[in-house]
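User: My notes are a mess, but here's the protein and pyridoxal-5'-phosphate's SMILES. Can you give me a structure?
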Amino acid sequence: MFNEAIPYKIYLEENEMPKAWYNLRADMKNKPAPLLNPATQKPMTKEELRPVFCDALIDQELDDTTAYFPIPEEIRSFYQMYRPSPLVRAYFLEKKLGTPAKIYYKFEGNNTSGSHKLNSAIAQAYYAKQQGLKGVTTETGAGQWGTALSMACSYFDLDCQVYMVKVSYEQKPFRREVMRTYGASVTPSPSMSTEVGRKILEAHPGTTGSLGCAISEAVEMANKQEGYRYVLGSVLNQVMLHQSVIGLETKAALDKYGITPDIIIGCAGGGSNLGGLIAPFMGEKLRGEKDYRFIAVEPASCPSFTRGTFAYDFCDTGAVCPLAKMYTLGSNFIPSANHAGGLRYHGMSPVLSQLYHDGLMEATSVVQTDVFEAAELFARVEGILPAPESSHAIRVAIDEALKCKETGEEKTIVFGLTGTGYFDMFAYEKFHDGKMSDYIPTDEEIAESVSTLPVVNE
Ligand SMILES: *Cc1c(COP(=O)(O)O)cnc(C)c1O
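Assistant: No problem, the inputs look usable. Here's the predicted complex:
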């Protein structure tokens, strides 16, 4: 049944792994807008960012012109533990759908943290160590980022303090224990250990927390402790840069077999896996060398791209972070209970936001019952149990393949399979029991949270 010319899994050799990250911003004509200091409304300077972020990461964050950043040897060694990741030709899925489309997925779930987030976690921990720091603080929603960071910190012997959204802390005790196994300390957020946590708890007693609120707590703790910095798992330019390893490997694997994709699809929470996957392909498009369709997939319950506003906003609920210009639902937006925790963020990467604003990529939203239907079908035919986040991309890849079935077109579709769903079995249970709902925010709800956007004179 397999096409003999193309194997089920395309693996690169270890010595074919990328030696440099690709910075997509270098090829963007319209650069992403700079982070602003909320007090002065001026672009954040290196000095202003220094108390929060590691020095080397600030350089990466602010650099819109250097196209390639060499990946330090120690990071490449760590990557070797779980990379290169396979690019899989979804022969079984194609057959099940009866589509002439050719479907490929880049599988990033083959490490203990279970997602692509380790690609940036190890880089951020490395630079923190290089700077002689004692440790880092961060937030985690569903727990993938916290897990990845705790693995990275234990490798470099750094202290790791994780603020975990309370609802996940309670619902995902196993995630918490994985983090503790790697030596991290995990605090449910909002907590009484920070000023901003106490304030939020006072205003909303009984709240089960949000990502934006956990970010505020983690930033405050980084500021308060000598030798600590804050690290973030998505949204920022530096994270997009590290995640380019996904796209670079994908492109190298496709090039080996002379395959050119027509459509590239990824789920979008803060935008890091999608930004990384599309980076080298978008670079070609920006330089006028090739054309591709890029599709971001988001949950209908948290539709930053498809129903958000392109404006400066806070990255966190407590408004302690710089302002970023992005597609946003407002930093006070609390999405309804959706099981793709990694996609419940109010904003979107400034890089992807600019590209979307300039019409260089598309976005679509899907409801979670349709997502789980696709997840289950995928698991049954391709074997991998996908994360709910990743399954958003699966849903749209299937839909595009079914369109090809109608038209007879043999399009090549590539999507990012960002992770596995072993810690999401409560969500699968709800789906199987028919108890999963598809809440979609009303226009009024979105208008209300967007009305609180800060006023910025651009
Ligand atoms: C965090 C996460 C995402 C979403 O984050 P992005 O920054 O948008 O990539 C997607 N899939 C998985 C498995 C995740 O853990």
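The longest helix spans residues 237-256.
User: Great, I'll file this with my notes.
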